[in-house]
Fold this protein.
Amino acid sequence: MGAVLGLMRRSGAVTGTDLIKATGLARATVIAVCDDLIKAGWVRELPAQKTAAQKGRPARVFEFDARAGVVVGLDFGVAKATAVVADLRGTILAKTTEPLPGFAAPDAERLASINKALRRALARAGVKPEDVLVAGVGIAAPVDRRGNISRSQAFWEHLDIGLQDDLRARYGWPVLLGNDANLAAMAERWMGVGAGFDDLAVMLAGDRIGFGLIESGRLLHGAAGRSGEMGLLQLVDGVGTPDGIAVLAREMGIDACRNGSAATVLSTLARANGSGLAAEDVFSAAAGGDEVAAGILDGIARRMARVIALAATLVDPELVVIGGAVAQASEVLLEPLQQELAGLMPNPPRVAVSPLGDAIVTLGAVRLALDYVESRALDLVLGA
């Protein structure tokens, strides 16, 4: 039954003959399995088809019902929570984002804001909580195989607010927790430029450097979920901190304006913004030919090349993808980064920018949830 359901999930409408050819099962077995899947709610029967040349009874047509249930993907961070609802083929039905109170706020307030984002997403998708089969959640902290958050750093501990228990108590859903970079790697291999790559590294271009690593098609976790964490970069000459691309671009741009460097459009942008510069300002200025901004990005490229070379030496990926909210803007880094990387190691991996933008972690959370459904479909009760 599982083999037939898996085949139908990967296909469009199929006939019994199609399933017989694909599985090698007898016709009576295939039809019985399809009838059982229809009763369970996973499959629907479409109008029968008959060609002019066909004799006898028209062929029965079956289709996996992608709306038999839904999954939820949640990206829970410092300042906001983003929730998406997807059908069982991964099509996004709704997305909402809700601001979060600061770490000083009680956990209950943060949990209430996350729940608000989920409720709004479910309402926009037109589904009820009982339609949800599982929720996947991405956070910026290591998560071990048992779903526990590492408590070895204060920042990670601030994210351990009992979200899994809260969602289970509110809705009764299975709740799967995953590290944000790991989920980004899953999303990238599912529907990004990393599709088809079995040896892949995804580096989030956010506040801190972290990698999601896939080796031989398998996501690497490590004993405590810390594979890909780059917390000791202060030990690496020419790097010095685990700051990510977005932080470096913003802070180096502000420093350039403060230090009275050569004429640069960054000074004009900083005055216009009032509160300073965004990383995207530096990227756009460099793309427009600003020499100061271009120098900043060259410095970032040299720094990131060392980080990527270090990671590539350990896991040997075929492709390294820069992902996250500012990934698209950081495309101007690719040429100098690749050149620097070629000088650091023989046969360096290719570097690319993710097309998934700031949705990369929530899409990874959806993929995590779908993998759970696909591996346990026959044990799940639809609409329970």
Notes: The two ends are 21 Å apart (CA to CA). The mean pLDDT is 90. Residues 70-187+361-379 form a domain with the Nucleotidyltransferase; domain 5 fold (CATH 3.30.420.40). The chain has three domains: 2-64, 70-187+361-379, 194-355.
